[in-house]
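Re: that chain you flagged

S.,

Sorry for the slow reply, it's been a week of failed gels. I finally had a moment to sit down with the sequence you sent. For the record, here it is as I used it:
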Amino acid sequence: MTRVFVTGLGATSPVGGDAPSTWDALLEGRSGVRSLEHDWAAQLGTTIAAEVAVDPTEVLERVKARRLDRSGQLALVAALEAWADSGLAAGDGEDAKVEPERLGVAMASGIGGVQTLLTNYDSLMAKGPRRVSPLAIPMLMPNSPAANIGLAIGARAGVHTPVSACASGNEAIALGIDMIRLGRADVVVVGGTEAAVHPLPMAAFGNMMALSKRNDDPEGASRPWDKGRDGFVLGEGAAALVLESEEHARARGAKVYAEAAGAGITADSHDIAQPDPVGRGATRAMQMALREAGMSPEEVVHINAHATSTPQGDLAEATAIKNALGPAAAHVLLTSTKSMTGHLLGAAGALESLATVLSLHHRIVPPTINLEDPEDIGMEIATEQRKLGDGDLAALNNSFGFGGHNVALAFRSV
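Prediction finished late last night. Pasting the structure tokens below so you have them in one place:
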């Protein structure tokens, strides 16, 4: 089976404007959750969220930024960083370092250009149809971030947009692995993006009783596995990984962070919003990822869990992990970086896969913060930086979404 390497990383998140600053913040246990300063926030039951640390309009050219929904802006920032980090970006006068017909994109989003959609609807209602932007459709369509990344790097092997709620980012990574293994591409830029910090999505999530209401303690609101958790904190941002076949990466002497070794995708068929309480679909996704990677449960030393800080979801995932790994679960170190970034919905899996890759690369696990009164889940949770051992290491990253979508990814140190 073709081996797939991670050769580039990029991010813009609630705790950092790029991948290095995001990683440093995660290791330090810094929260990106803040009180919202928008005028519209005061009317909501939840007035906190995790907005990006660096606004994308500070990074992108002004004209380019104006032609993108915020989700597209965030995606382009992360993808261009990953592309540059991979060493594949051709300089002035240089030939392309990968054939365009062998270069693909899979950039996911759970909701798409919701800010463009709602802003233009407001203009339509207030000022009439002539005030709707002629760019609204290419900005709001869910595939817009992927399409614009494809245009920026000249990708012609296929440009895709998986949409599976909060599992979208990991599904994009799984698709990229498949594209390379099926021989459709040598390099694929993969990831996820989301920009839904807006009154309508926040009101909708709030009315579902999904959001934390710890408005007086923003930094302490996201608390996976803590008995006092009361819902997730909405976040925004994007993360991108460059996936490359081993042959292509070795031929050019690429820097390699880790191996994207396997993926498992399943569906619960249980409920549109609630997880299967015993995590049967999640269990199978992890088992499939391990099988595809050729890993045994005993090889897994770390899991960056989905763990959103919801009462039901955290426990269902813990049950699934124990069922998937069996006795080996007792030796796995868990963490949830959502305790610092909040929940980035369609970008969550991509950002957490980036963190998982860096955990293997640097052999250190970021902490789960705000865990003051932990549930007894029968597994070890990192509450401070924890070093991983020597030798070959393997890790999993889980993502689960509304609709019963489950995606588990297996990574291996290189």
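What I noticed first: DSSP finds 13 helices and 15 strands in the chain.

Talk soon,
D.
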